[in-house]
Amino acid sequence: MVQCLAPDGSVVREDLLPDPETRLELYRQMRRARHFDERGWVLYRQGRLGVFPPFGGMEASQVGTAAALTKNDWLFPTYRDTGAALTLGLPIARTLAYWRTSPHGWHMPADLKVLPFYIPIATQYPQAVGAALAERRQGTRNVAMAFIGDGGSSEGDFHEALNFAGALNAPCVFILQNNGWAISVPTRTQTRATDLSRRADGYGIPGVRVDGNDALATYHVTREAVERARNGGGPTLIETVTYRVKPHTVADDPSRYRSEADTAGWDAKDPVTRLRTHLLNAGLMTEASEADLLAEIAAEFEAALAEADSYPEPTPAEILDHVFAEPTPQLKKQRAEILAEHAAPNQKEQA
Amino acid sequence: MTATATPTGHTGATKTMTMVAAINDALDIALAADDAVHIFGEDVGVMGGVFRATDGLQARYGEERVFDTPLAEAAIVGMGIGMGLAGLKPVAEIQFAGFLYPALDQILSHLGRYRHRTRSRYHLPMVIRAPYGGGVHTPEQHADSPEAILAHTPGVKVVIPSTPADAKGLLLSAINDPDPVFFFEAIKLYRSVKEDVPTGDYRVPIGKARMVTEGDDVTVICYGGMVEVAQKAAAAAAQVGIGVEVIDLRTLVPMDTDTVIASVAKTGRAVIVTEAPRTAGFHSEIAAVIAEEAIEHLRAPIVRVTGFDAPYPPFTAVEDVYRPNPLRVAKAIRQVMDY
Ligand SMILES: Cc1ncc(C[n+]2csc(CCOP(=O)(O)OP(=O)(O)O)c2C)c(N)n1
């Protein structure tokens, strides 16, 4: 398993360390992601965010990987990959809107090739292969990155995608976040395999196992995979070994299926603390400069929250928008029905 | 109020239950009665299902008979087909109906065809349970109503209960049916209603509709999550003197056409309510049956009250626009009365 920093923040692979600027940027992105996750819980409890899947503890797995992309590359995130989407540049306000169940969360910025969070499991994997092939056909060097969980890697789509990507030499980077659980099902119940990176062997593509709580290591191996894909070397499967410290979603009660002992020990592997200790020890960051960073991140988030608050609520007929480029006669008729019903809201009481 | 169907096995004793508790009770009875019954799916074991429908069953019957599978719907259904062919009674859970699509190959290509393609040498006593439908503010794809896809698959029965007592009695019938049964459970109803449910092995026959209310003026045909919506509209109509006969189909395949046709022959007016998209939904099948068999009785065009031809919206603020509400049903009732 590739590792750069030990859990206590000490350097174990000097040769793999990215440059100081990159290390600081990774820390900044991890802090942004964690801030979103932490504020998200509070906003959920206040009724200002809907049910969302937390990712606290998985920041290195999401940030270190997505940071290896440029804005010309594709990102296919699952519902748990808010951290990855934020890192590539999905605006916080849009991300909040998505988890607020607002259509504004589906308005993807024109300068990003990121898809809305995928809810059905594994469907994004074959799609990433297609996007990667399309880039190559169009003569670019852009790559596609897709995320999946350990549970998702049991689905047929996962295996079909890996096989296609290998057979067609697609410029794809597959991130398999092994966070130990698929809702209530631990990885040992999910599969008899103990090293999921070796699934790549069956498809003739490279598989890499990396400490998913070490942002420098995830960044290092992903950058290598991205470069290989860009240079025509084909796909890579990267298993990030991490842990879902938090519940499956903010509405889930993990005490039904796992004990405190299962989770104990993972706090000591916290990815944010690990990089923080390293940066402080290496003299790249001081407590004062960190305080500035955190203040800046908090301000950025609050401004984004205000922007999200300013998005108007959807109107009733909006549920029929964007089904086809040109609404069908049926949709036009149905829109008229909705407008007629909602023009007279007081009638509701009579029903 | 009369029940068209006569329940069997009713001992007289009852217990108050929610729909999810009634389903759990049915599964418990089935596991106890027959060693061949096996329950499996995502999170059904240790956790007892995301809706707790299988709560406590693994503890009672062991990990061989109630077990968590890896996350793969095609394999869940495909494996169940093999188990059923080889003599077990598989009861699989698809966590949400909106996630059964990866299994459609197994369902459309195989589930319904074994008896036919082996001239009854093999048959498939399999049940697939799937929570479906909206009204509870779930994320994308968690509120789909794909029952028409299943109903359009020859060889598969489709059952959708609307009350706790029916859920229990129909599920026990489904598990004991020699052929594959798809069993949709309206998420909205899991915990919103409680009623007295007969204890013991109680059966409601597959293929018999339930007369929910009787009336002379309009027939409203519905099932699952739409029954309580139709009931509210019928109650509102009764206040202004319109008699509405609400028919809960209970079973889409086979459909109890006799009950529907007899009612439409009496009332001369039909309103059909589902929460699935409008185009090519099961409501269209019901309308076609009425047109074929009772057109001479119709005093007004048939009206469908349905979801829309767009994906079910996960937008909490306007979700309820999509799902038919009592007002929309009441309007349709007025429309067929005023024609
Ligand atoms: C096709 C499909 N089946 C079932 C579900 C329901 N579901 C949502 S999350 C989940 C577990 C996923 O576990 P994993 O892939 O390990 O990812 P994690 O949630 O741990 O990030 C399940 C079963 C779904 N969303 N899609």
UniProtKB/TrEMBL annotation, chain A:
Root EC class: oxidoreductase
Task of the protein: The pyruvate dehydrogenase complex catalyzes the overall conversion of pyruvate to acetyl-CoA and CO(2). It contains multiple copies of three enzymatic components: pyruvate dehydrogenase (E1), dihydrolipoamide acetyltransferase (E2) and lipoamide dehydrogenase (E3).
Cofactor(s) listed: thiamine diphosphate
The organism of origin for this protein: Deinococcus actinosclerus
UniProt name for this protein: Pyruvate dehydrogenase E1 component subunit alpha
SUPFAM superfamilies: Thiamin diphosphate-binding fold (THDP-binding) (SSF52518)
Keyword Lipid biosynthesis listed: no
Phylogenetic classification of the source organism: Bacteria, Thermotogati, Deinococcota, Deinococci, Deinococcales
Keywords: Oxidoreductase, Pyruvate, Thiamine pyrophosphate
Record's subunit section: Heterodimer of an alpha and a beta chain.
CDD domains according to UniProt: TPP_E1_PDC_ADC_BCADC
UniProtKB/TrEMBL annotation, chain B:
Cofactor: thiamine diphosphate
Ranges annotated as spanning the membrane: none
Cross-referenced SMART domains: Transket_pyr (SM00861)
The keyword Protein biosynthesis is annotated on this UniProt entry: no
UniProt-listed InterPro entries: THDP-binding, Transketo_C/PFOR_II, Transketolase-like_Pyr-bd, Transketolase_C
The entry's keywords: Oxidoreductase, Thiamine pyrophosphate
Gene3D superfamilies listed in its UniProt record: 3.40.50.920, 3.40.50.970
SUPFAM superfamilies xrefs: Thiamin diphosphate-binding fold (THDP-binding), TK C-terminal domain-like
Superkingdom of origin organism: Bacteria
Residue ranges of every copy of the Transketolase-like pyrimidine-binding domain listed in the record: 17-192
Record's protein name: 2-oxoisovalerate dehydrogenase
Organism: Deinococcus actinosclerus
